[in-house]
Structure to design on (101 residues):
């Protein structure tokens, strides 16, 4: 039953096999080449995506570290200004006391 179906299906073609087979082979080869090209492009894009994700992560870490450094430096600046103001007021206090006497 299976062998008879196979012979009838080959007899259904109007184009002779000497013409049909090279066209089918050519079509298959073109499909394989196209699939291979797409596979290589997909691989390249996955690598590029991975590299970009790593680069973004590194920049994010660096930016967060820089923000923390900036915040620490701002706190140090505020403390230094407060200390300066305290020192200036302590220096000015004896002068005020001497002027009162």
């Amino acid at each position: 039953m299976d062998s008879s179906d196979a012979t009838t299906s080959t007899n259904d073609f109007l184009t002779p096999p000497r013409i049909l087979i090279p066209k089918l082979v050519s079509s298959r080869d073109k499909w394989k080449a196209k699939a291979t090209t797409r596979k290589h492009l997909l691989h390249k894009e996955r690598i590029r995506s991975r590299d970009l994700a790593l680069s973004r992560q590194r920049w994010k870490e660096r930016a967060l570290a820089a923000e923390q450094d900036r915040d620490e430096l701002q706190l140090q600046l505020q403390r230094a200004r407060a200390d300066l103001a305290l020192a200036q007021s302590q220096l000015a206090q004896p002068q005020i006391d001497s002027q009162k006497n």
Remarks:
- Residues 15-100 form one domain.
